Each structure stands twice: as structure tokens, then as C-alpha cells.
Amino acid sequence: MSIRRGGKRKDPSVSDSGALTPPPGLRLFQGTGEQAGYAVLVFPTSPRRSQLENEIEALTTAERSVVNLLLEGLSNEAIAAHRRTSVRTVANQIQSIYRKLCVNSRTEVAARVGKPTSK
Fold this sequence. Notes:
42% of the residues lie in helices and 10% in strands. By secondary structure, the protein is mainly alpha-helical. It folds into two domains: 2-42, no CATH class; 51-113, Winged helix-like DNA-binding domain superfamily/Winged helix DNA-binding domain (Arc Repressor Mutant, subunit A, Orthogonal Bundle), CATH 1.10.10. A three-stranded antiparallel beta sheet has the order 1-3-2, with no helix packed on it. A hairpin with a 7-residue loop joins strand 2 and strand 3 (38-42). Helix 2 (61-71) crosses helix 4 and helix 3 (76-83) crosses helix 4 (87-101). The longest helix has 15 residues, at 87-101. The radius of gyration is 26 Å and the shape is rod-shaped. The model has no long low-confidence stretch (mean pLDDT 77).
């Protein structure tokens, strides 16, 4: 939203002296050059989720469990025994994890995630 100084309409954010005062919690950016005489209120934004958080959110609960076991350094066989599932299922889940995290190896998973996932 732009506010032109000296406009016809009285704006509550413009004092009688013509100085702009932003409402509490907002910042004021005043233009320079061609934008001189204009001001923009900058609204605070909520922190954006990182790409990694989005990728981890895309993992199923089973895949998150496999990631945590991968981070412990377990083999496919050990993961399958721990999760009471087949080795082939674990291999499929690992391939799905690689695809969702855009990685190609267990080492890259560890580097990408870095710590055990929650949920």
C-alpha cells in the first residue's frame, strides 16, 4: 500500500507536519529517486518453512522411522528386523525417501537431514 505525501485525503498515519508515522508493529520504507514522496508500510511476515521442513513433512510416518534408523547407521536387513517388515519394503521406502529428499545415498540423507526427524 502506497501513501502519497500531501494527498487530498487526510491519512491518520501522516502527522500535521507531513511526517509519516507507521502504526505499532509495522515498519516504514520511504522511497528515493523516482519514488521520492512515497512511503510503503512493510508488514511483518511469518517465518517461511524451509524447503527441508517441507520435504520431511512429505515423508510418511514409516519413511520418517526409516530415516531415523538410517541415521543410526543400520543396514536394510537391520531396519527390516527392527520394523518387522520385509527387506524389499525397506528398500522401496528408502528409494521413496531419496526421491522426496532429492538425494542419492544414505550419506546424503544424513547430510540433508542431520538429526532424527520428529512425528
